[in-house]
Amino acid sequence: MSSGVCRRVLQSAGSPPAASAGSWSWSWSMSSCCRHRPGLRSEPRRGLSASGRGTMNVFNREMKKRQKNWAASLQDGHQYDYLRNEVGSRVADRVYDIARTFPLALDIGGGKSHIAEHLSKVQYKYFILRLPCISKGSADFVERLFLTDVSENSLKRRRASEIPTHGVLADEEFLPFKENTFDLVVSSLSLHWINDLPGALRQIHQVLKPDGVFIGAMVGGETLYELRCSLQLAETEREGGFSPHVSPYTAVTDLGNLLGQAGFTMLTVDIDEVQVHYPGITEVMADLQGMGESNCAWNRRAMLHRDTILAAAAIYKEMYASEDGSIPATFDILYMIGWKPHESQARPARRGSANVSFGDLSKISQPTDTNKS
């Protein structure tokens, strides 16, 4: 979609969830596997071969920088932060699950401090109230936080936080920090635009101190499958073929392998499904642009024809509309936790060191007869 068309769509779109008087609604659910989606074949899945060699060049990073700068310069840009705010709070919750203090932390792609605002002292006290079994001395707290982002405008508009923060203009693919620097690295909704994801994970592993932890969230899986299928069907009908309009995403089944190849241990990977309901397809596209999440793949088309957009809107409503007439946009959020190895961490026992046979397990449930005469 051309920038001119997108700009006109954005100006004519309604307000996002925070000010829509019920036009938008949220739906969250947990999922443990990827689902088969109706419609045409999906976009090429992003990933590497099993060997892990080679670097993909899928995204135009300079275009993504311009998109994020433009989105951050909007006067009403805060209205498009609802997804980042929610995911940022869930990343912060995972930080609170680790009972330790982090003297120095790094937020990759932190932008407007969507995670930092949830790591404040107020949130810390609320966490203690929710879990009284955890003492104040054992719960975690981030003392200092560095924010990196490719967008200068995003860093300028970062929100105030009780935690001392320092903004650093840097590309997520090239971290300008020394090895063994940070106790904690977090990232929220930024890694899915990186070309060399395995290389970025290795850099995160390098800047972490031993026994440091990485907690991240990225868009992946079957995200925006409704929009993708609708555009594919509309283009096939009106133009005799289709081009990719939704960028490829990392599959949840690949994420654990990528973390392991980067050197992380004690891995945890899970997925949340987020559904946001909109009045129509133009509002979906307008909000994606307002978030700075427009497609920046090298093979994207420069524009969409008017007839194709109208056909896609009709297909979207016909295939996916809810009973109230709204249409859902699904986001699969992949969460990951990985630790940098340290001698103090638990390790699996040496192979062959077991002193109990599996054959003896059946005897455990057998009652012992102590009344023999």
Short summary of the structure?
This protein is an alpha/beta fold and 373 residues long.
Question: Which helices and strands occur, and which strands form pairs?
Answer:
Blueprint: H1 3-12, E1 25-31, H2 61-72, H3 82-96, E2 101-108, H4 121-130, E3 141-149, H5 152-156, E4 165-169, E5 182-188, H6 197-207, E6 208-220, H7 225-239, H8 252-261, E7 265-278, H9 281-290, H10 306-320, E8 327-339
Parallel strand pairs: 2-3, 2-5, 3-4, 5-6
Antiparallel strand pairs: 1-7, 6-8, 7-8
Helix pairs in contact: 1-9, 7-10
Detailed description of the structure:
Belongs to the methyltransferase superfamily. One of its GO terms (cellular component) is mitochondrion. The protein is an alpha/beta fold. It has a single domain, classed as Vaccinia Virus protein VP39 (Rossmann fold, 3-Layer(aba) Sandwich), CATH 3.40.50. Helices cover 30% and strands 20% of the residues. The chain contains ten helices and eight strands. It has helices at residues 3-12, 61-72, 82-96, 121-130, 152-156, 197-207, 225-239, 252-261, 281-290, 306-320; strands at residues 25-31, 101-108, 141-149, 165-169, 182-188, 208-220, 265-278, 327-339. It has an eight-stranded mixed sheet with strand order 1-7-8-6-5-2-3-4, with helices on both faces. Helix 4 (121-130) links the parallel strand 2 (101-108) and strand 3 (141-149). Helix 1 packs across helix 9 and helix 7 crosses helix 10. Mean pLDDT is 79; it is low at 1-24, 28-53 and 134-140.
Give the distance, in angstroms, between the N- and C-terminal Cα atoms.
88 Å
**Unreliable stretches, pLDDT < 50, 5 or more residues?**
1-24, 28-53, 134-140
Written as H for each helix and E for each strand, in order along the chain, the element string is HEHHEHEHEEHEHHEHHE
Give me the secondary-structure category: alpha/beta
Strand order of the biggest β-sheet: 1-7-8-6-5-2-3-4
- Name the CATH homologous superfamily: Vaccinia Virus protein VP39
- Can you count the beta strands? 8
And the CATH topology?
Answer: Rossmann fold
Protein name: Arginine-hydroxylase NDUFAF5, mitochondrial
Family: Belongs to the methyltransferase superfamily.
GO molecular function: oxidoreductase activity; S-adenosylmethionine-dependent methyltransferase activity
Subcellular location: Mitochondrion
